[in-house]
Amino acid sequence: AANGEDYTSASYEITFSAFDVSETFNITIVNDDLDEDPEALQIALSDATLSDLGNNATLTYTINDQDPTPSITFDDGAPSDNEDDDASPDLTIRLNAVSGRDVIIPYKDSTPDDGATGGGSDYSLTESSVTISAGTDPPVGTISFTVVADEKYEEDQEVTIDLDTDNLTNATAGLTTRAVYTILNDDPPPV
Hints:
By secondary structure, the chain is mainly beta. Helices cover 0% and strands 35% of the residues. The protein contains no helices and 15 strands. The chain has strands at residues 7-8, 28-29, 39-44, 58-63, 71-74, 80-82, 90-95, 103-109, 123-124, 128-132, 140-144, 146-147, 157-163, 172-173, 178-184. The chain is rod-shaped and about 105 Å long.
């Protein structure tokens, strides 16, 4: 925990009057909007006068987060473009809030058999994950793949990419976890 970001505090001088056995002081917890891990605050007693601090001169106080885990979604679930010149589209994924933790979003190729052909025929996509680092603002990441241009007249073809919502780290599934990218045919019909 960081003073000024997670809590506000200062050094205190506490005076015990005769026959006092306890005294209090205040630490103000700063409420932020970041989903984050619990944070530890170390409080230490020091420099006692006319007293012995004993064995319990240090206390660890845990600040527990109350902010919701952000959700992840595709910005545009149905993008498209021509198949010309080996395009490299970027599909944008976005958290609904800045996170205080790294968010890892795995994704997978879910193109059905009647869609575009992967492996470099119509497109090339490596299944992997996107990391949106803690504090990134705006909280966005991109999934990139390559559209392979050919010179065949064919119907428009679709590439389907799903966010692997069962394996998200520090995020929940938002509204749009599937993007269907349409490769628009740009070749003339045969004569």
